[in-house]
Amino acid sequence: MTSSVISRWGECYDQRHTWAFRAYEKFMAALSPEVREHLAYKTVEDETYVVVFGRTQVGKTTLVMDLMGVSPSALVRVSKVLRGGRTVGRSSTATATEYRRSPDDRWGLRSERTRITRWFDNDTEMTQAFADLRQSMQERRLNLSEPCVVHIPQDCLDSENRHPLARMLDLPGDAPADDVEQAYVQEIARRYAPLADLILLVGRGDDLSFLSPEGLTLPGIEDWQSVPGRFRIVTTYSFTAGSVRDLVRERPGVLSPDIFRDRLIEQIEKSCALNPLARRPQNYFPLEFGQSWMDEQGRTDSLYERISPLIAELKQQLIADIEASTTPLARLRGAVLAHGVVSRVKAVQLAQLDESLKALHAQLNRVGEDRKQAQMIIADVDATVESEKRRLVHLAKENLREDLDQRFELDGKTSLAGARKSVLDFKLVINDAKASLSLRVKASRPLTVLVGEGADKDHDGAIKTRRRFWSKLAVGEHEPEIDGILRATFKSLQVRLNSYWFDTYWFTGPDSDYSQDHDLLVNCLKVAEENLLKAAHQWWLAVAERELANLLQEQESRQVNLEVCRAEACRLDAEANRSAKQYRNAHLARLKFEQRMDKDLAESKRFNDALDTAYLEELRRRDRSHTRHESPAFRFINLFGAIQLIDARRELALITDDN
After folding, report:
1. Residue 488 binned pLDDT confidence (cut-offs 50, 70, 90)
2. Whole-model pTM?
3. How many Å apart are CA 182 and CA 186, to the nearest integer?
4. 150 neighbors 98 (Cβ within 8 angstroms)
5. Domain boundary assignment for the chain
6. For domain 45-69+179-326, which CATH number applies: 3.10.450, 3.90.1690, 3.40.50, 3.30.910?
7. How confident is residue 467, by pLDDT bands cut at 50, 70 and 90?
8. Which run of H or of E encompasses 231?
């Protein structure tokens, strides 16, 4: 085989992906300058762009420093500077921070406030500058729209060990203190997560809930299971739990990373379901680092000595993944993946959003029904309160006294008919009168009969109200009082009659004993009626005042209940407004998400169309080249190169299925 044929074969092999890179560059040229700056074609010498995301105080910054190559001896120094004067144990990340290697031994800091990189010769100046930056953000004097950039001095880096040439974006924790910080984190994630060559999701090995859907809500991160090839799961404090120590003791000899990767996946799936694509063990890195891990050295269980080689192996694998993610072909694969999974992400997210909308709609309907019920109760209680208010106006004490003074008398009449020709007859008449008076008192009720002036008001509303009021009252038993009044009233007549020696009246003329006893009997009856009426007046008044006090107390209770109902109605109104706002916001969020996904789908289709167009153009070019050559060897090489081209296209088409 001649050298020209060999050269042609090498050329075909080297150019098997060139057409795809041309399509990629053409596609990138249509994007915004900012996105194009980060996503455009880069050579293998360019720095990898890594995003690190996780909750606060899980060791993200320490991991970043370790991967950047900060030496163990310089780690304390670097950590102190990056905390900006804050005490140990508080998050050192004031804002989204992009870490880079400094070209020399100086610190570098660039923020939105200055727009240029400031260089510092000593740690004190850098510490103060970082503290000022954090203070400005906390006081809302600096609304960051991009990460600040920190350059780590060369004299802090370990030159002996292998570390990737990378820029690393350390995102703030995923639970910001307020809406301003939340909006900032969302915006940074939305703009920079898609630009990453690799994303590290970091959490503690003893708290794996950071991988649950509720814990991963930032744009570009929430769909990690759809494109797991772009993500690596890193756990810190992975070997300090008692169960892990037991596992190490149970397995003598050299430990394999697969043991702990499988265990980590098993533990994750207890709280977070993983799809088959996301269960690839090579994407999981249980690690340990920092001072707490260094303190494990020399302990009797030899945990540090046995685990350290395994951790070193895992770190080197992670470094290799970071380095591999920045090759041109890897970035091309990333672009295919980033656009090829949009439809799947859209379907999953829309299903979740629709479920949330359904729940919010049900909540809105439930609150609406509660509001209707509250309004009905308020209307009913309010009507009762107003009705009772009008009724109580008619039942004022002065009106009740007026009823007793002007519209109350003893029921019926007491007759004095009888022979009365003897003392015994008089005594019998007195007994009958007493019995009649007692019955009349018991049968009497205010407004049963109208007396005196105003009798023509029987159909007046106030009179009817009070008539119903009196009709429901009862004075109870007052037999002893009635007997006492009757005895006292008829006592003088009884004594006079008891003093006679003879039973028969011999004379009945005007001045006779008979005439005097008769007049005395009539007078006693009159006085008895007056005394009994006065006593009944007091009895009925007392009962009426007690009942009126009860009615007033009930009215107060109704009024309180009405106010409670109104307060509840106000609460339900506020809840309904919140629910309606939540529903509108959720509906708007769904609409915006769908529009964003539709745009991405259109871009995805355009990118795939660009790949197809470039692929067909390359086939035609090779076909023309094939027909121009008469040499069978060249024609064979060209034909075999075309087959390689087909394999390359099929390889790109299958990327989404493999990931």
Report:
1. very high
2. 0.56
3. 6
4. yes
5. 45-69+179-326, 74-160, 383-586
6. 3.40.50
7. confident
8. strand 231-236
